[in-house]
Design goal:
Layout lengths: L2 E7 L6 H12 L5 E7 L15 E2 L4 H5 L4 H11 L3 H15 L4 H12 L9 E7 L4 H9 L1 E9 L7 H11 L4 E4 L2 H10 L7 E3 L6 H7 L13 E6 L8 H13 L4 E6 L5 H10 L6 E3 L7 H5 L3 E4 L8 H8 L4 E4 L14 E4 L3 H13 L1 H13 L7 H9 L1
Parallel strand pairs: 1-2, 1-4, 2-3, 4-5, 5-6, 6-7, 8-9, 8-11, 9-10, 11-12, 12-13
Helix pairs in contact: 4-5, 10-14
Amino acid sequence: MKKKLLFVIDSLVGAGAEKSLITLLTLLNYDKFSVDLMLFAHGEILEDLVPKEVNILNPLKYTDFTKLDLKRAFLYSLKKQNFKMFNSRLKYSLNIRIKKYNNAQKARMFWKNVANVIEPNTKQYDIAISYAQGIPTFYVAEKVKAKKKFAWVNVSYRLDNKEASFQKKFYDQYNNIIAVSPSTKEILLETFPYFSNKMKIIHDINDPHFISNMADLGESYSDNYNGLRLLTIGRLAQQKGYDIALSACKKLKEKGLDFKWYVLGKGPLKEEIVKYIKENDLAENFILLGVTSNPYPFIKNSDIYVQTSRFEGFGLAIAEARMLNIPIVTTRFDAVYSQMINEKNGLVVDMNADAICEGILRLAHDKALRENVINFLRQEKKGNLEEIDKFYELIG
């Protein structure tokens, strides 16, 4: 009999955790597993890549409810003579407008206000997996019945005392907590040292054959530009250090470098980024491309991949650039040395605009360094498909 698996994640936007989950799902043996996938937001770019064997569950009632504007939501509640969802939504919306919250705080506010109107999953699973921290972790802990539960942590997850106290009761309900890198594990244990015995490491899975094939398909740059192409992939959010990238871009322009810096991603900082671009006359240099389900042709046709993150659980986009032999300039975030060797497969620099600028200039102007980096990339180990064995061992 097939084992029944449930995966839960916020959505399938084109970020690292989501791509990692898609890769894992494509590698599973569906002769042995029956797989459900639950999302808190539907219709995102990567859903088309979910294997046909995976059953994407219908949206939660509350998920559908949040698609209504407030007027229609009120009329819907009036018609049903039930204002529970409306009141929960209103409380959450008002709370997060009071002050600026980080992601962990937003997740707590969401769950405290909305959990009472989110229906439980009525199926019985063998394995339930929260594939992201925060709301998916809370949901699997409280709303899912399973013989075993596993929680993935795919960012450097530092929590203050209030957030740690709130989240502990959820992580207590999991058989194991899975970190995607050694540094991710170490950082989580700073907050939850008593979970050391239940923590394991399974890296984000990279399939080099899939990436290589995808890099030859689909759209790439269409502007007929022949100069230096820089690329950054990541959500337009504070974590990714776009303020550092923009300042570095301005410095590169002032130094007279012929370049274009492209960005694949979307997120809450878009308006702020667009404003900076306009105010600093960078429209020809810093170019937002939006999102795509296949970023690999863009990576393959870049000259340098740039990562300006403040923190990452692993840094999947770096791994993808490495697999396509693209030299890298990256900030020195916690997990960076799990895959970067400074001066070998790229440059690891300080977390500021000057250092990013100088790293890009070095790779742009030092032909010997650039060739050495590319040669090293061509020879280093590609991908980590062996991590699927750790997953099978975990779920038994």
